[in-house]
Amino acid sequence: MNALPPLEAQDRPARLTVGVVGAGRVGPALAAALQLAGHHPVAVSGVSDASVRRAAELLPDVPLVPPAEVLARADLVLLTVPDDALAGLVSGLAETGAVRPGQLLVHTSGRFGTAVLDPATRAGALPLALHPAMTFTGTSVDVQRLAGCSFGVTSPDELRMAAEALVIEMGGEPEWIAESARPLYHAALAIGANHLVTLVAQSMELLHQAGVQAPDRMLGSLLGAALDNALRSGDAALTGPVARGDAGTVAAHIAELRRHAPQSVAGYLAMARTTADRALVHGLLKPELAEDLLEVLADSGDGPGTAPGAPDPSGPDPDAPGHGPEEGDR
């Protein structure tokens, strides 16, 4: 690999021309944030109607051009495409000679560090990986939400100051992530954010089935308090039947989910088992109560019927052809 040329402030204009390749939810918002910091968006590429609309809303009067033309016009290029498309895009741009020596090439993938940019680096580009740890809507509200947002930053050592400066200009807080740690870093964020959305949506659906008219309002204060407590206290913030070792309540939950929302059982069991394990390790779940609880969770993984040996709080269903565990397992 070619040695990276140093990024010398005196040799680079104070304000950069900015281009975006991939006008999804992230790229236009970051370019708009850089514009607020005094940089100049000059080109954007996008294919879908939604991309064109986003670019028009967040980057008005910035021309829509092919990716190679974006690189021809911009000092700083944001590559904001899906993870699986990034390597191919970089290779294609490098092979066609679109990359210019000294050009800052930034991708926003959480999964990758700068190694994915190696083809462009060999062509003289300056590689940066800046991943905003935030969910995006594709609207102007995202620009405001960048204030205080943490960015996972990976770059060559000689570009670290430049990378962190760009994050700060966008209103974010740089957090250094080693190249080898990027996949683990991204997995952690997926557990904390992406899976949270699934859990919350599932919870609202179940509350609606239970007759709650405003599930979002009911969950709002509960989830806000739970999140705040968890961020402050970690596992010590845990409450609920699993932490208490209340095996009967957990068994009743499983039975009701199998009856009304069988697609939710697997997720409930997985989270309950993980919660029980962490509660045991941290001394929150008493060992003498854990045995019955773990037995319920282990027995409940066999199939969609009522957990073997678990009490059915509502009794047998008279309309069902069978109500034992063997019937449910088929």
UniProtKB/TrEMBL annotation:
Residues 296-330 are annotated as: Disordered. Residues 310-319 have a biased composition (Pro residues). Residues 149-274 form the DUF2520 domain. It holds the Pfam family Rossmann-like. Residues 5-132 form the Putative oxidoreductase/dehydrogenase Rossmann-like domain. InterPro entries: 6-PGluconate_DH-like_C_sf, DUF2520, NAD(P)-bd_dom_sf, OxRdtase/DH_put_Rossmann_dom, TM1727-like_C_sf. SUPFAM superfamilies: 6-phosphogluconate dehydrogenase C-terminal domain-like, NAD(P)-binding Rossmann-fold domains. Residues 296-309 have a biased composition (Low complexity). PANTHER family: CONSERVED HYPOTHETICAL ALANINE AND LEUCINE RICH PROTEIN (PTHR40459). This is Oxidoreductase.
